[in-house]
């Protein structure tokens, strides 16, 4: 038992300040993290500041157009107390409310789209970080998402560089010698969650350094797609009401057809 | 920026050893954690050892019966490569594969059911912990669950005592002064995820101490149900295939009925 040294440590990174379009985010983060981060650390960056640096800001009255343009596939829609919630699959393969288009912590009258290429953004930040700390680090770009069956939201990985996001243990054996058939911890999302606990939503600290997981730092790692399950492999690819309606329409036609036979 | 002191620290607790039915788990954990934990810490305990102490072990050939007896509602079923996956809602309101009945890290020919009353188990552990550390702590009982749309599994809270699991910010304002309409971080599940990163699946370390979140330690907190979303509030209460089939049957009957009109 290690009372002195934690097995996992998360540090907030202050002083990032307000990010505006055109800011050299990798440089800014590398400067602020200098002195905190070490080789083997994983840097968690809130997607919001990546989007701001990329100028992914649009006028709020274009919000619905923005959501439509980000949407690949509508998964579910619900109206609750006059508020319409649209769960959609976006261009990154992520299933999120409003396609991840975000109105919080943005200037009045504006909404923020997700970064265009979060894996590439993560790679640029990683390059700047590694030059600063003089060794390998990992970088994850995080965003906040709701999930079925559970209240509240957790942070997840939407882009990454140099981090193995899925600890695939399938085919290995557990302590009792049994074959692990499905065990594959989504460590990327668990790291995003740990970082969110210190970054917080209201505090608005956009960057955290996670130490103790160097075993997942891997230059050959895939990006954010490693944690995306495609609709064809998913048992919940469509909202319950939408699927039931789809089935009803097909069944009704079949019922009518049965009339003519 | 705090390079010296992490904002969040997670410590593994070694030497718990193999737990058998009848073990006084609160006492065992309190003894092992003594010297590590401090007031304000949150102790994350893997449900597996709680179940073992409660003797929730059943013969593997009774596995299907066990799953049926734990099941309140079948959410989705899929067969893949001859392996049937049943996603069901269990007695705790949790939606999990095989109702949370677990075959890994158990003696050959046995499977493990989830603890009967994880909130009460958490309360007993908390009481023993607080006597040991001489101050308030929080306790969460965790288990591993898959989720729609994302690959891999993350740890979630299935029972808790003395920890606020949902950081409900709805109605508050963000840094930009905007009203937060849906923001409610599921900090309980994020703490479970952070703890899983050090406990790990193959290492088999069942307990971790999480430091830096004393603001969520709250004697008045609700238990694990705080993070359970009921089926009636959920847009994904039924698997897509199941909902489509349900709709089809209803639509077909309606189509046939139209024949007689």
From TrEMBL, chains A, B:
Signal peptide span: none
Domain (Coenzyme F420:L-glutamate ligase-like): residue spans on this chain: 16-212
One MF annotation (Gene Ontology) recorded for this entry: coenzyme F420-0:L-glutamate ligase activity
One Pfam family named in its UniProt record: F420_ligase
EC number: 6.3.2.31
Gene name linked to the record: cofE
Keyword Metal-binding on entry: yes
InterPro entries: F420-0_g-glutamyl_ligase (IPR008225), F420-0_gamma-glut_ligase-dom (IPR002847)
Top-level division of the source organism's lineage: Bacteria
Keyword terms, alphabetized: GTP-binding, Ligase, Magnesium, Manganese, Metal-binding, Nucleotide-binding, Potassium
Designated name of the protein: Coenzyme F420-0:L-glutamate ligase
